[in-house]
Each structure stands twice: as C-alpha cells, then as structure tokens.
Request: fold
Amino acid sequence: MELSKYRDTGEPTMTEIQQKIEALRRQIAYHARRYYVDDAPEISDFEYDSLYAELLALEAAHPEYDDPASPTHRVGGKALEKFEKVTHSVPLNSLSDVFSFDELQAFFDRVAGEIEQPVYSVEPKIDGLSVALTYENGLLSRGATRGDGNVGEDVTENVKTILSIPLRLTEPLSLTVRGEVYMPRAAFEKLNDKREAEGLSLFANPRNAAAGSLRQLDPRVTAGRKLDIFVFNFQAGTLYADGHAPLSHAETLDRLADLGFSVLRDRTVTSDPKAVFDHIEKLGQLREKLPYDIDGVVIKIDTLADRAVLGEGTNTPRWAVAYKFPPEQKDTRLLDIEVAVGRTGVLTPTAVLAPVRLAGTTVSRATLHNEDLIHLRDIRVGDVVTLQKAGDIIPEVVCSHPEKRTGEEKVFFMPRVCPSCGEPVVKDEDDGVAWRCTNSACPAQLSRGIEHFASKDAMDIDGLGPQVVEALLAAKLLTDAADLYDLRQADVAALDRMGDKSAANLLSAIERSKTAGLERLIFALGIRGIGQVAAAALAARYRTLDAVMAATADDLVTIEDFGQVTADAVVNYFSHPQNVALCRRLAERGLLTEAVAAPAGDKFAGLTFVLTGTLDGMTRDEAASLIKAEGGKVAGSVSKKTSYVVAGADPGSKLTKAQELGVPVIGKEKLLEMVGGKT
Reply:
C-alpha cells in the first residue's frame, strides 16, 4: 500500500483520514473480540492482518491522531528496568481450600446457618495468576499482579499484550476488575517446544510459564507468549453509567462481558448443594478437554447482599471456598528403568515411560525413589503403571497393574556397580534404602557436586549451569570446586558456545562468590543431610570453617534440631582427607570462611520463622537475612515449634499446615513492621 495515498495532499481531507483511522480501530477491536473473547471469528486471519497493516500505515503517516487505546499499542515502548510497586485499593485475598465433598458440605452447613436459601455460583478455578485491571473513563490505565494481596507490581505494558484484555471498554466507565491470567495449553506446548529446540530449560506447567511471562521486563517477550485471561470479579468503581449496583455475581459477570471482558465459561448458578456436587464432577470430567488448565472449582455465594452478611475472615472471605481436585492420574507403560548417580553418590532409579499428557505437560520420565519402594509396589519393567504429579509438578509412579501383565515384564534390581565410574556400590547403613557409590572421584558425583556448589542457594555463581560444568570437566579444567577459582578466561572462552564475553561474565560471577559467606559455603560443600537451615546453624555456632571441621559428634548433637545421624554425617565428611584438602584449597583461594558479625538485634531471639510463597518485592533470602539479623531462626518446615509463617503469593502446603497447627501467619509488611520498618 502506498502511504502517499493517505498524506495531506488535499484529497482526501484530514477529517476523512481521522474517520478512516477510527473506523479501522473499531473494526479491529470488534474482530479481535470475536476471535479472542467470543471464539467466533467472522473474518480470516489474512483479512484481519490486512486491516491491522492498513491501520499501522495510517498511524505512521499521521502521528497527530495517536490514541493510547489503539490496537497497535498492544506492544510498545522499551523494556523496563524494574516493576514499580502498586498498593491495591481493595485487597486481592485468596480463598480457603476444601479437598473433599465432606469439607464442602461443612461449608454449606455453615452458610445455611446464617443465610436463608443461599444461592451459589459454581465456576472453574483457572490455574493461573491473579491480576487487577484498572480503567479510567473506559481506558485501561493500569494492570497489577496480586503480589501478597496488598501490594503487587505494575505490569501494565505486559497486560496490554494480552489480546483478550480490552484497551478501551464499550462504555467510558471507571472501575477495577480482577482476573486470572493463564497460558492456554496449545501456547504452552509451543513455548516449551521452542525452548527445547534452543537448549533452554522447560517450564514445569502452564501456570509457571504464565507467571514467568507476565513478569518479563520486555513486553515484547510477553507478547510472544500468547497469554489469555478470564475476568471473574468486579472490585471498585461502577459497572453502570447510572451508578446502580448489581445484585448478584452472575449479573456482574454478564455486565463485565458486555463491557468487553472475557469471563468464565462452564459456570452454573444453583441453590441445590447436590447440583453443586454434580457440576464439580462434570468439570472434573471436562478437565482434560479444556484448552486451559483448571485445578479445582470455585463455589461462591451468588447474592452480593448475602456475601456482606457472611463477611470476610482474616485472610479469606467467608462466602466462598475453592474445591481442589485430587492429583490427576494417568496410566501408561513403563518401558525401562534408568539409574543416575547424585552428587552425594546415591543411585536413583528413574522410570522411562511411554509419553502421556498429565496435568498440563507430556510426561515421559518419572522418579521411582529407591529399589525398596519399587519392590514394595511390585513395579516391573514392561508394566502398565499409574502416574500422578506430586504437587502438580513432579511426576511419580503410584502403582503398577499386575492384572495387565503379559509375562514379558522384568523384575528390577539396583546395579551393584556404579553406572558412572564402575566402582562397587553399597547399601546405606543409616537409612537402609539407598544404594551409594563410594568412589569420591566418581565423575557423576563431581559434576552434580559442582552444580550444587554453584547453585543459587549455595555460592550463587550465575552462568555455571550443567552444560558449562560438563564442558569444563570434558576439557579437564576441573577436578573439584576449588579449581573454579583457578580458571583462566582464555581457557573458558575456548569452550563450545562460550566466547570472551560469556567467559568474562562467568569469571566475574566466580570472583563475586568468594564473599558468599560461611553459611552458604557450608551448604555448598554438599555435606549429606546439611541443608540451608543446618548450614546456618553450624555457621552460627562455630563461626569459622576450621571450627566446624574440628567439631565432634557429641558437640554437634547439642545444636537445636541436630540428631545423631546429622552430627555423624558432618564428622564423617571431614574425616575424609580429600574433603579437608578441598576446604583448605578454597580458603587459600580467598573464599570467606568466617561468619559475618553476630546478629545486630535480638527482636526475634528465640523465634522460629518459616517462609512460603512469593514475597512481593523481597526474595526469600532477603527475608531470611532480615530475620537472622534480629536473632531469629528460619526453618524449612512448619511444626508446633514454629513461631510465625511468613506467607506471600501462592503459599502452598506450608500455609495449610500452619492453619492446621494454629501457627500465626503474617505477610511481608507485618514482618517489616516487627523489625521496625526495615527494607
């Protein structure tokens, strides 16, 4: 198309050009809604693209008619350096979970005790992440993540790339709505296929992919991820020009649809609890056929006046619950069992499976834990087995089906020599189930040990992933972790797919790791049974690596939560000359082997905290450091000894455990308040 056709040459007039631009914008917005929201396109992709190209050309020729709500502004501007914080005018609370029909019936009984003839809205629980969308005079002005419910992040430029989010409402209203951003299954599969082809790590499930995509600093990356949204709640402002308020949730959703939003489908409204149970079962059966992932069903009081009577709980509304589906299970055939060697020498069997789609991804491998469990569940090579995902993330084999055997199946036994180095393996005397390679020079242990040493929670050496470690080992540049600090840029740059810039960045990250501190260094050593919490306890007690190395088992067991097995593991590690030599070499290369100064405060003395979920504007490491600086302890699991659970977005099972035990749950803001407003 010739741009001169639309330039100010007297024919046509500028008024006509402006009218043409506005008409194209209306056409494109209409057809985008028909395609992305109504799922009923009226024109071909080619025709839509032609309209878009025509609008793009006109706007380029006439920038004086720019409009922030134009479809061409879906992706614009440069990448951000960071996300600004947003305080929600109405908290974005989560829902209480129920896991059985008995628990759901208890909810119905409680509601019936306060509301006469309650009416329920029953709708799919989209497995995505919540956002708040704010409109001013009909124009999208801001999109924000849920965060901790009170404070989120401004992701306006990224939500604009979601084509089912209207940039302009059908009426010039000012309001805020809440929705769930998700990644459709088809988009998720394409994204993972692309990442696999590029040698990148794969996303565990569509929800993780959606969360990562929405928080990209470059909106162009988000645009390429093909996210979608369902709007499910109206939070502030007015839905009607005359200001009157809707009476029910169903009316609210219908009105939101009229304004241009994509709203939840497959929902029903009923006053009959049995009909609620029936709809849950229906959605469970539809779950695999839906184009998006759902992890449960939301049951809400439909009448808004009744919601006000029931009111709000501390962190969740009393007028709604989320019924969570049990883990999805699928049957497939176990083709083989492969054995890998971990960084501590433990041999781990992994099931090789006929590929099957499970909880949003295609699964072809699953953990089998250990030989004893395989025999206990009578799992054999060739069996038809049932799979599920633990926590909807890690595939595991639940059971086998002996009744489907053909006689060709084979009983599995752990190899008696290490598959990596060929040295003999022995059964662990402490736990009685693990087989372990005793060769400290085993290549598999060395590789995984260095990966662990460099990991984020250990020495945090950015860029030292599995592929780089393997390349360094293949080039015989490493014999242990201390050799990292002797690497030369020329040698690293010569590795495949590295180059001078990547090598320089890696060496800078290695140099920075020298100041990681004693706590991280102890964890990085990979001492069996010593996680982050135990490493912190050792650093706090002994203050220097030399003192830790000299500690006796009798002294170690006096540390809180240290048992005899853990104490013996520490003593055993430092009884091996090669481990002592490694520590000496690390110290000689300038690594910090002393603990930092003692805690500056004592506000948390005697208190134990557990961190869960994503804390808005603060990493877990930062929160843990804050707690420790005030004399507190950070534990990895919730128990009766836990003083507080600090919960952020998507807290998971630790929050449930805290609620069961009656442990106080606080957010990041309360934690900062407790330490006097530190950030």
